[in-house]
Amino acid sequence: MLNVTVMVEVHPEFTAQYRDAIMRHARNSLSREEGCLGFAVHVHESDSNRFFLYESYRSRRDFEEVHVPSPYLAEVEALTAPWVRTKELFLWEQYPRTGSS
């Protein structure tokens, strides 16, 4: 299993638009990708401009070969890029490793 975490800070004037776009992206990922096991969108309790995305994929292959090249990822990235102040993405492999990666 591969987990992806993304910490995003958006410009305040785009918070609502970013939230709507990333929620739509999460729904697309969950409904269109068999290997996407979870996609949760969180907002910081005292700073609504900070988002934490927690995504789970059955394998690294499901993330790299299905999710990353998907047209809806390219679309949300292009749409939200001007709204994002900072973004950090981390990949986490389950330990101990199980199944294919």
TrEMBL record:
Coiled coil: none
InterPro entries with a match to the protein in the record: ABM_dom (IPR007138), Dimeric_a/b-barrel (IPR011008)
GO molecular function: monooxygenase activity
Domain of life, per lineage: Bacteria
Domain (ABM): residue spans on this chain: 2-91
Keywords (A to Z) from UniProt: Monooxygenase, Oxidoreductase
Gene3D superfamilies: 3.30.70.100
Keyword Oxidoreductase (UniProt): yes
Protein's UniProt name: Antibiotic biosynthesis monooxygenase
